Amino acid sequence: MKRITLFYALVCTVWNISAQSHKDIASVDSLAARVERFGTGLPQEKVYLHIDNTCYFVGDTIWYKAYVTRSDKGWLTDLSKIMYVELLTPDGYLVERQQLKMEDGTAHGAFTLTDSLYAGYYELRAYTRWMLNFGRHEHPHSKYTEDMFYNKQMAKDFFRDYDKLYSRVFPVFDHPKEAGRYAKDMTLRPMRRYYKARKGKPEIDLRFYPEGGHLIEGTDGHVAFEINDEEGKHLDAEFSIIDSDGKEVAQTRTLNRGRGVFTLTDMKPDDKYKARLHYQDYDYEVKLPEVEKEGYALHVERKDSVLRMIIQGTTESKEELGIQIQCNGVSKAVRKLSTNATGKDTVDIYWASLPTGVNQITVFNGEGRIYADRLFFVNHHDYNQPLITVEGIKQEYAPFEPIELRMKLLRHHDADVSLAIRDHATDETTYDNGTMLTEMLLASEIKGFVENPGWYFETDDSLHRKALDLLMMVQGWRRHDWKMMAGQEHTQFEFLPEKIQTLSGSVHQTYPLLEETNYGESVYIPLIADTAPIYTTAPDYHKKGIKPPLAKVLTLQDLYGPLIKKMKKEANVSASFIQDRDIVDVSQTTQNGKFYMPSAVVNDNYVLFLSASDSTKSEKYKRRRKRKGFMDEQAYPEFYVKLDPFFPVFPKPYSYYQDAAFEEKFALQDSASWESFTERKLNTVTVRSKRGGLRRLDHSKPALVVDAYEAFNLAADYGLNCGMHDWRAFSRQVATAFFGDMGMDRHFYLQEQYDGKILDFMPEQKRESEAGMSMSNAQMEKYRRLRHLDKLYIYTDYVPREQGSWKYSQTNQPEVVIDYRLLPNDGVRPTYRDRRYAATGYSVCTEFYCPDYSKKPMPDVKDYRRTLYWTPKVKFNDKGEAVIQLYNNSKKTVITVEAEGITTDGKPVVWKSETDKTYSR
């Protein structure tokens, strides 16, 4: 009942905001009021993960604690009860996704870095379903790729991307060659091909960010900038600003992390400004944004106890203008503006009235047009006082020595705190070293990655304040979209805060597959009213002499477009949850072809059967129809039923500093190639990777290994088939599911192999590069059916994090090889007409093991633990005190103690000890 109440509350709030945007007469007051209602009625959620260590080795376990907070209050969320945590490879491929049940806004879990994984910089990504309503945009792709999908909506869902989700990147090193010797070697996934390094003039990335967003005629413009090399490394530089006449109007230089600011006075509309600089013996010129004839410039500065906002327009304006300040989506101040004859107005807000954190200023008119906006940071130092103490830490511990620490909460006797104690010898400092404090106050509110965010809070001097303000101007991102909040943009909340496990999906018409043929034989295709062979990839067509226009990859729409029909009536959806001997059946009639039903509460692995039937038919008919052909994968289902995936598909590219050694001092590169990631010699890290031209395919080094049935289900849920297995198009479906279109405007080369061999289906047409094989029709039939398939081994040089890279625009574009592996010993697995999933419910985490050495161990006992102690929740007594007891490993050890958490009223708790300093919040 609570969930239903929340549902209607959310819908009514959104409806009120949307309705007012159409019915009310827009004004500054009404728009500001909508923003205020939105911020308190539909708060966002933020995530932070506390992990047990700073680096890992292949074979280790990653222990983590997740904290999810409300943006409006700051305390632990009471909206969502389910969250998702994903482990991604350095390339951006998904290793595992865990669904976690949240109790009071927190959850914990663990990932195992299995021996089959490569070393490199891995990523943890975390979110709730509610968070996926915000910051959405369309992932770059070619329009032709949309024809690979059943319909346009499924393509749109696949290419849905997000501005920002919580991310934590950390190094994973090779498995130790000798137990206990943790050499920080990093052997990355081998590639078949290297890319020629570009020579000559190095590229630089110089970008300009006018304060408020625009350069306005006749005003003074404050312009921030950031300059990086082509890899994203910050540069130290100085340069001049030149006007259209070639006159130098300003000089500037970087102040911090490649950033700086300069001022342009009394700008003219016809002036074309550009920056001129000299770098590595080369000259560069970069254009500034155009000067606009209309609008308002915004300048923000702190004057003693007030925040002063100076608004400049081209002339006096009679239109109604307003300025609004919000923090974490909650409105904090609204003022109306009244420009004078010179088009200028000044607004002062008491600094003390604004909360600590990232604040957002928006200048707008009564029609909802945004003239200027800006982020700025407020720090009242109300988070400086330590909220927890840890005592009893010795300088060093003998082998197997007992360790006892005393923890005490200060001023708050109620807080949720996780604790990690580890061997300091293998700690690895990285730029991704944020804490609960820096994430909630800073990093979660701005665009992109913030390297070493704690530096901004080390001291409150002019250098740090200026650097922080430059960060606001350069990496400003609007987590809280003012136009959406004001009802000026269409607002559609696709996902509700999850309270319970649910199934959501849709039902569609199925269609008959094209006539069964042998590989390479022609088949009649209705759309083109002609026969053509269905091959996997375009180059194969050309090898067989097929004439244009058929010499192309045939998409789902090419093959079946005319057969795809819209649903004319609703269907009855049946779901069966099976775990061991327990079976739970649920059903629901669709609404507009969609279903959203509660599922059985399930932990760990289970089997899900999903089917749909004509809702107008009798129960007898439905039972008979369900039984007939139930275990025949070639039988036609009555409907195409699919779950609607909501998980993010695409990884974000790493910034330079996410996979760089801390405080590295490399010479500036004059080229970019694979060595930018794979051949660095780091301060404490040796990165090894073999390179040397195009090598033969190494079948022991796949990029991905996936279960064939799971790959089919993924393709079907994305809309790449109609819920039926068509072996002729399966490889292309799988490649699209895992790689999209690689951001290219042409199809990438795709090759099929069968247990490591290419099928030589036309012996007289010999392959140029690799020997093929022939097989009997009976043997070939096995590779065509899911019941015989075990795994798909997928090989590619493609790195999803590098989509759009210059490397992929060359002739050496990435190839994809999909190697079909049969079940061993002529095995057969059960397959079905309807949808059958090997699904996973709530992830259940085992307890961290701490050995007991109260009895002195034998001399030959070796203990090489790096994480000595981990608990996701410290148990404090009524006085806010806790005693932690554990034992050291088998060597002399200096320990690092790290506690993080949050109080009941939303104050971040951070305490960290190191050999050289102690940091607490």
TrEMBL record:
Q: What is the protein's name according to its record?
A: Macroglobulin domain-containing protein
What organism does this protein naturally occur in?
Paraprevotella clara YIT 11840
